[in-house]
Amino acid sequence: VSGRKCRRTYTATHFTVQHLAGACSMTTLTLTELYTADDGHARFRDLPVALSEGSPAARLSRWMASGGCQFRHSPVGFASDFHCTGTPQWLVVLQGRMEIGLRDGTARVFGPGECFYSNDTLPAGARFDPAVHGHRSRLLGDDPLVTLFVRATG
Question: Which of 146, 56, 20, 151 is nearest to 93 (CA)?
């Protein structure tokens, strides 16, 4: 792979890899962010995370503050109504597959080992309007869903 860029892309988590000293080394991790746009609707966007620390053999992002973690088990058939995220948090799927659906019909599916930053909080001063705000979640398939939530701080 000498003399050219390597690029690998996965469904929910993207890895940008570039050629360095005869080997490919990941320099940026691109994760999905679920956020609230200026119009109050939830949207998806890419969130680049620089892997600027560590060594070429083990690239690391900077440490990110967190306010604790929580595990969730959802049985087969789980589906939520539209809701907003109360506190920004990372969600990591450990088992099963989940779909996050938005009001505009957009949906993304996350499976084991995939994560996203859930940041679609209710805009300041707004009252929840189920026709405008939030996202819905549902389990896909015949396996229970196990997720890890890591609260963001700062």
Answer: 146
The closest alpha carbon to 20, from 57, 54, 62, belongs to 57
Of residues 78 and 20, which shows the higher confidence score? Answer: 78
* Residue linked to tokens 């994760």: 31
The amino acid at 22: G
Amino acid in the structure at residue 70: Q
- Tokens (6 digits) for 30: 């691109």
Question: Which distant-in-sequence residues (6+ apart) come within 8 Å of 142 by Cβ?
Answer: 76
Query: Is residue 9 scored above 50 in pLDDT?
Result: no
pTM of the model: 0.80
Half-sphere exposure of 52 (CA within 13 A, CB side): 5
Token couple for 72: 């969730």
